[in-house]
Amino acid sequence: MKIRSTLAYSLAFSFMGAPLLVGAGVLMSPTPVVAQAATLNLAGEGEGTLAIGNRPNQTVTFVAISSRPNRQTDISWRLADGNLLQWNGQLISASATQAQIRLTSAGMADATGTLTVRYQGNRLISVMGSGTIDGQAMSIRFTIGDDSVSRPPTTGTPRNLAQAGHGIFGLQGRPNRPITFALVSVQPNGQAELSVRMADGTLITFGGQQTRNNAYELVLNLSNAGVADAQGTANIRHGANNSIKNIVANGSMDGQSFFIQFTGH
């Protein structure tokens, strides 16, 4: 998956006579400032979890947010099964790094609650929120896959997964190379390493952050490969006795596309 995020917004505020310090990016006003006319357009691929009532959690892979000058806002969620959810709301505030949306509906269902959308420069970072859908509790946590800025830390027990097996490492412009062994190490703060050993003995190690972990799978947001820059996502399915069932990863290393496909023996 090629990871993308886009952000474009234009804002016009009414400040009740209070000055705006452009250089500091801070509103010097004793009263809250609400966008009177704004357009907000964001989109990005990543990893997220949507929980509604007692239903099984759903995995979110893409979000698109679009608002109009009257602050009416459309939110689209792409789920891992391909379904698209369409929500509506109202943009109630926006700054250089964060916007808040009050939910009004989720498709044909009534919805309440607030979404907080974070971004930095031209990078979408995350969408977090909670509320209700048709009276059932709802929560959403979505993080862009290439985010390495201000990610909420993941906590848990240190773990190491290791497995011999077979697979392929592919790097753009070079022949595919066979993989014979894989190792995954995750620290309590969520910092993680993914290492794959080639048939010729070469070891390639990626660093990153754990973004999801359940009884069957963990997901890593990759941010480096040794001294090389890297971006990408690794999905690791694991089994009993810290074994690895399979690994699927893709992204870029120093601007070149790569992929990993590995199956444990």
Structure notes:
This protein is mostly beta strands. It has two domains: 5-144, Lipocalin; 159-264, Beta Barrel (Lipocalin), CATH 2.40.128. Helix content is 0%, strand content 69%. It contains no helices and 19 strands. It has strands at residues 5-13, 20-21, 26-27, 35-52, 58-67, 72-79, 84-94, 98-106, 109-120, 123-133, 136-144, 159-171, 177-186, 191-198, 203-213, 217-225, 228-238, 244-253, 256-264. An eight-stranded antiparallel β-barrel has the order 4-5-6-7-8-9-10-11. Strand 13 (177-186) and strand 14 form a beta hairpin. The protein is elongated and about 60 Å long. The chain starts with a strand and ends with a strand.
What's the SSE blueprint?
Blueprint: E1 5-13, E2 20-21, E3 26-27, E4 35-52, E5 58-67, E6 72-79, E7 84-94, E8 98-106, E9 109-120, E10 123-133, E11 136-144, E12 159-171, E13 177-186, E14 191-198, E15 203-213, E16 217-225, E17 228-238, E18 244-253, E19 256-264
Antiparallel strand pairs: 1-4, 2-3, 4-5, 4-11, 5-6, 6-7, 7-8, 8-9, 9-10, 10-11, 12-13, 12-19, 13-14, 14-15, 15-16, 16-17, 17-18, 18-19
